[in-house]
Amino acid sequence: MSLKDSLQKDMIAAMKAKDKATLSTVRMLKAAVANEEINLGHNLSADEEISVLSHELKQRKDSLQEFEEAGRDEAVEKLKNEIKIVQKYMPAQLSAEEVKEVVQTTIEEIGATSKADFGKVMGAVMPKLKGKADGKLVNSTVKELLH
C-alpha cells in the first residue's frame, strides 16, 4: 500500500472516530505529499515519500524545541502527538549502534582519515540512512568516528 493510500485510509478512520488531532495531522501529511507531487510533476517514489515525511518530522521536532524553550505547554503536547503520528508512517529507525556500524563502514569505503573528510563521509552516508536515522545522530556519530 502506498503512502497516499495509507494516509487516505487513516484519514477516513480518523473522521469516523472523530479524532480531530489525528485527522488534522494526516491531512497535513496528505497535503505535503500532494504538493511535492505537483512540484515534481509525477507520483512520488518510496524514497521521495520518505523525504517528504522526514521534512515534516524535522519541522515538528524543531518547533517542539522552540515551544519547550518558550514554555508553551499546550503547543508542546500537540506537537508531541503530531510527531507520534508522523513517525507511524516512517520506516523503522536504526539504533545508535546500527548507525555507528553504517558510518564506520562508509568511512572505510571512502578511506576517510580526518575531520577534513567530514563532508565526503556525510555525503556518502546520508543516502544510506535517509529516513532511517535522525540527521543529528548521524552527524555526531561521524564527528565522533573521525576524531
UniProtKB/TrEMBL annotation:
PANTHER family: ALTERED INHERITANCE OF MITOCHONDRIA PROTEIN 41, MITOCHONDRIAL (PTHR28055)
Protein name per its UniProtKB record: GatB/Yqey domain-containing protein
Superkingdom, natural source: Bacteria
A GO molecular function held by the record: carbon-nitrogen ligase activity, with glutamine as amido-N-donor
Pfam families linked: YqeY
Source species: Ligilactobacillus saerimneri 30a
